[in-house]
Amino acid sequence: MKNRLQFHDLAHKFMRITIFQLLMCTVFINVSFGSETNAQDILNKNITLNLEDQPVKTVLNQLEKLSEAQFLYSSSLIQVNRKVNINVNNKPLGEVLNTLLRPLRLNYKLSGKQIILNRTEDNAEEPSPNEQNISGVVRDEKGEAMPGVNIVIKGTAKGIVTDANGQFRINIPSNNAVLVISFVGYEKNRKF
Predict the structure, then answer these.
(1) In tens digits, what is the pLDDT along the chain, a chain of 192 residues?
(2) Does domain 45-120 have CATH number 3.55.50.30?
(3) What's the CATH architecture for 124-191?
(4) DSSP string for 53-98
C-alpha cells in the first residue's frame, strides 16, 4: 500500500513539472514571436522631426527617442559631428533613415530593436552627372592581377584599393583627372 502511495505522489509531481514546462515553453514562444513583429514595426513607425544644422549624433539621439530603437555605430566611422538638416513630417523611420543617411554615404541594418550604421561601399556609388565611372584591372609586368594596389585621384583624398582580382572601379570628376597608382615595392605610376 505504501509503495502505491509513493508511486501516486511521484506521478503527481511529474505531471505538475511537465505542465509547468509546457506553460513556460508557451510563454517563451509567444514572447519570441512578439519581438519579431516589433522589430519590423520599428521601420514603419511614423516620425516627425525638424532639425537644422545639427550634428548627426543629435539627430540620431532624437530618432532613438521617437522610434524606441537603438542606433549602434562607430563615432569616427560615421563622423558624428557633421552638421545635417532633416525635415520630415509623419514619414516612416525607414524612409527617414534613407533621407538622412544616403547623402552621408551611410547605410543601416536592422537587428531586433537595434539599427546598425556603417559606411556604404565606394563600389556601390553612382557617378554624378559631371563624373565619369572608370574601372579596370591592375596587373604586374608578368600580367598577373595585383590585389591591394592603391589608386588615388591626384590632388584629392579620394581613392580605392584593388580587390583580390586586381579589379577597381572609381568615379572621377572629369576627363582631365589623373589617377596615381601605388603599391609597396613599386614606383608610383600616373595614368590619364
Answers:
(1) 556 667 667 766 766 676 666 666 666 666 555 544 465 678 888 999 998 888 989 999 999 999 888 888 877 677 788 888 888 899 999 888 888 888 778 888 887 788 888 877 654 455 566 778 888 998 888 998 888 788 888 877 677 878 878 888 888 877 778 888 887 776 666 554
(2) yes
(3) Sandwich (2.60)
(4) EEEHHHHHHHHHHHH--EEE--HHHHTTT-EEEEEEEEEEHHHHHH
User: Which cell numbers in the block locate residue 185?
Assistant: 615595392
The pTM of the full predicted model, rounded to 2 decimals, is: 0.47
- Are the C-beta atoms of residues 70 and 113 closer than 8 Å to each other? yes
Using a 10 angstrom Cβ sphere, with 0-12 exposed, 13-18 middle and 19 or more buried, the burial of residue 129 is exposed
Say how far apart CA 180 and CA 192 lie, in whole Å: 9
CA distances from 74 to 79, 101, 110, 139 (A): 8, 14, 16, 35
58 within 8 A of 103, measured Cβ to Cβ? no
Cα–Cα distance for residue pair 57/81, rounded to 1 Å:
7
Q: Do domains 45-120 and 124-191 have the same CATH topology?
A: no
Q: What sign does the dihedral 18-21-23-25 (CA atoms) show?
A: negative
